[in-house]
Specification:
Layout lengths: L2 H21 L8 H21 L2 H23 L1
Helix pairs in contact: 1-2, 2-3
Length: 78
């Protein structure tokens, strides 16, 4: 399996797991764990998109990453 496929797959699994856990009220949006899952997931998926040269997903995952970092920063300030 190619490196970018593994990295992208791990990232997407983390993003979907965070979404699933939030949807079923196992993990709330106001937790550091949720923010970290989104940061790591978006970072990995974004990196895989860079390796593929797929700019729309680089933009999507880049914005997702930034928003999650901002959220995590606000959680640390509480």
């Amino acid at each position: 399996m190619q490196f970018h496929v593994i990295i992208g797959s791990v990232g997407v699994v983390l993003l979907l797991l965070a979404f699933f856990l939030n949807l079923f009220k196992i993990l709330t949006q106001d937790t550091k764990t949720y923010a970290l899952m989104n940061i790591i997931g978006a970072g990995l998926a974004g990196y895989a998109s860079i390796l593929l040269g797929f700019i729309p997903f680089v933009i999507l995952e880049g914005i997702w990453f930034i928003v999650a970092v901002v959220k995590l920063a606000t959680l640390f300030r509480k």
